[in-house]
Specification:
Shape: elongated
Helix content: 55-70%
């Protein structure tokens, strides 16, 4: 049986990546809210310092977004 290959969406890289940035920002805000409420696993992320790594990764993504665009 042949494997089906997905077809291109017809969207540009910027059309795909721009919403990704918005989702990442919203998810970071949600994580802060859950952490403040003491809800796991988010509260544990703070205890282990993972929030700093997540923040650095998000900053890198935003700073380098243009390198993914044509």
């Amino acid at each position: 049986m042949r494997r089906r290959v997905p077809r291109p969406s017809g969207k540009s890289a910027s059309e795909v990546l721009a919403p990704a940035v918005a989702v990442r920002v919203a998810e970071r805000k949600r994580g802060k809210r859950l952490t403040t409420a003491g809800i796991e696993p988010w509260a544990g992320f703070i205890r282990r310092g993972l929030h700093l790594e997540i923040a650095r990764e998000q900053e890198w993504f935003a700073a380098n977004l243009s390198t993914f665009l044509p």
